[in-house]
DNA sequence: GTTTTTCCTTAATAACACCTTAAGATTTTC
DNA sequence: GAAAATCTTAAGGTGTTATTAAGGAAAAAC
């Protein structure tokens, strides 16, 4: 049995931290979530972590000082969440020393991809036991590869747009379970928008089904659960 | 199994020292890191080192005096980290005796390249067991040599500029995976800038493709993954 | 130290892929 | 049959990438 990575997320914007927690748990990671630096530091001492996601600006400490303490006593990758680019001037220098940076607002899949890249880079050079990673979702003739962003159905390559890929990824990683359209929206679009634009999701589903030679009535892959959402069977 | 080299890094700017540590460890080197001269000197006496990276300006000693002590009792390469070029005049002379110099801010890849070059040069003439190095990427008619910065495609030499080489190196060492343009930017330009100047990357990609007789539509080598980044297939 | 050359960046524009919107059609539920 | 949810279609708008060319910076040559 392979290990699932332990990931720390620290952000005083609770909405963001909560959201990130959902994404990560969706990918089967064990998540340690905190809204301030003090609790986070405590966690760093007592838990065996594999990666940390830190907001740069915290009420009681900045992400940089936490990053330093991680570097001193431990050795695992750190990803910094930085504010949007206009505000970056104020924190120049603070982000030094992190392994990667993600600017808010971000798309969940982007963050997931970075997390996986860092974990892989780290384990590669530390030759510890590899984590349970799913860069690849494969079942019944459908293959999704997060590394190459390629999708294969019945050995034929489908060229999906980023949003389409993202939707299919979420549905697949939750296969066997109905994903509500609102949940789906947040998983794909992140905190970028707040209006759950249902129609947009539907149009993308339509495009997906078209590319998969699927149809709304009598669907083979993406099934509509009326009044609830969409699902892909196991 | 080949040996991994022991490398000393000394810099009172902890952020810099930490950063260098991360990059070196990613290359499988064993790192001894210190923020002051005193601890560093202690390390030099007690550890069997293979290379030292010294900041010129330290609170309790300058890199030069440390370098002197290394030269007196030991015999391994020394790389000096010097401040930005405007300030170099003030410390001219201090850097004498080192094997190489790197000015801050520096690109991570550049430092790694210098480290490898020095280790190579040194072991060559001391013919002990060679270090484990990866200075060459070779696959399907494309060869990249980090030491000489030479690139060969189909047995024909391409004359790449430093930036072009750097970009191609990053893409190749991540081949089979999409590298986001922001990630690419940070890998190549380092933490020097925070503005992800996407356009600059694109122009270099364009030049690269031109020299490789590649095109944006129907590309053979560098492929664009829309909304995500660039990749080179495995 | 000066000129020459090479290289990097910037900016402006064009071309393209993608996303969203909206409005009407269809299906499902009650 | 009415209401609500979903589906379909197409067009306009947005954002991303490609392409040039030109200015300036850095490096090399003299």
Layout of strands and helices, then pairs:
The structure is a homodimer of 234-residue chains.
Chain A: E1 6-10, H1 14-26, E2 30-34, H2 37-46, E3 51-55, H3 63-73, E4 78-82, H4 88-91, E5 100-103, H5 108-126, E6 136-139, E7 142-145, E8 150-153, E9 156-158, H6 162-173, E10 179-180, H7 181-189, H8 198-211, E11 222-225, E12 229-232
Parallel strand pairs in A: 1-2, 1-3, 3-4, 4-5
Antiparallel strand pairs in A: 6-7, 7-8, 8-9, 10-12, 11-12
Chain A binds a DNA duplex (30 and 30 nucleotides) through residues 161-163, 197-200, 202-206, 216-217, 224, 226-227.
Into how many domains do the coordinates of chain A divide? 2
In the sheet with the most strands of chain A, the strands line up as 2-1-3-4-5
The greatest interface between two protein chains, and residues involved on each side, is:
A-B, 26 and 28 residues
Counting H and I runs of at least 4 residues, what is the number of helices of chain A? Answer: 8
What is the CATH C-level name of the largest domain in chain A?
Alpha Beta
* Quaternary status: homodimer
**Secondary structure: helix percent of chain A:** 25-40%
- Largest sheet descriptor of chain A: 5 strands, parallel
Mean pLDDT across the residues of chain A is: 85
Low-pLDDT stretches of chain A are 88-93
Structural class of chain A, please? alpha/beta
What is the string of SSEs of chain A from the N terminus onward?
EHEHEHEHEHEEEEHEHHEE
CATH topology of the largest domain in chain A: Rossmann fold
Distance between the amino and carboxyl termini of chain A: 21 Å
CATH superfamily of the largest domain in chain A: Response regulator
Overall spatial form of chain A: globular
Query: Beta-sheet strand percentage of chain A?
Result: 15-25%
